[in-house]
Amino acid sequence: MSDFFLVRDDGFHPHDGAEPVILAPDVDPATLGDYLGHDLIAISFPAFSDGRGFTLARLLREKGFAGRLRAVGGLIADQYAMARRVGFDEVQIPAALAARQPQEQWLYRADWQQWDHRSRLAG
């Protein structure tokens, strides 16, 4: 059993061994343009209650980052839809969390595209 899994819209995947550039949640947003040429960027979440990584992901996508974006650290299944909406492609979770929150819980939140609150409010 792997120490980590990658969660994507179709469930758990074994960790692929790719080495991303890792951004801390307190990275200066003005420097995000320096990272646009990378293929894989991971944004660290020190705790599930620390949402700065969501903002960084959105800003990277707005600046044109087209590579793979991975959330690492303290995210839980309930936050998967938000992670996908702001631009993350996948979430890396430890095996211990996968045991407590099995694939079914993550898949339940994989319908993130169906919940477009902005268009619902505008309509």
From TrEMBL:
Q: Which InterPro entries match?
A: UCP030820
What name does this protein carry? DUF934 domain-containing protein
Origin superkingdom? Bacteria
